Amino acid sequence: QVQLVESGGGLVQAGDSLRLSCAASGRTFSSYAMGWFRQAPGKEREFVAAIDRSGSRTDYSDSVEGRFTISRDNAKKTVALQMNNLKPEDTAVYSCAAAPSGNYYHVFSKIVQYNNWGQGTQVTVSS
User: Fold this and answer.
1) pLDDT tier at 102, thresholds 50, 70, 90
2) CA 32 to centroid of chain Cα atoms
3) CA–CA separation, 6 and 94 (whole Å)
4) Which of 9, 50, 74, 114 has the maximum number of C-beta atoms within 10 A of its C-beta?
5) Which residues are paired to 60 by β-bridges?
């Protein structure tokens, strides 16, 4: 199984950038597709970005497309979310998640497809 710990959140101004990191433990990290989700106060958790087990395929929500970039380093067992041109609407707790994909290069975009979650890191964007 994989354990996930997020870091890199903080308080920034609109237009600024942040890079979130998710550190994973275990020997099977390369077998997991990874994703980033966020949850704003009073709202449900929503999909942000996803990447397949190899790091060659990605997917983004319409709200972050062109601003956020997801990447992974299987050797270091990490997945990152580079967030540029942040907006107040991006304020939320960001969580990384893992979904077993075996030898397939799947990209998952739904919460139900993930069964491993980190505790999240707070991102606050002021106007």
Assistant:
1) confident
2) 13
3) 8
4) 50
5) 49
Residue 10: phi and psi, rounded to 5, are: 175, -175
- Are the C-beta atoms of 125 and 93 separated by less than 8 Å? no
Residue 32 has a pLDDT of 96
CB 29 within 8 A of CB 96: no
- Give percent helix, percent strand, percent coil of the chain, each to the nearest 5: 5, 50, 45
Cross-strand bridge partners of residue 92: 123
pLDDT at residue 19, as a whole number: 98
Mean pLDDT of the chain: 96
Rg (CA), the chain: 13
User: Which residues sit opposite 6 in a β-bridge?
Assistant: 22
Size (the chain), residues: 127
Largest Cα–Cα separation, the chain: 44
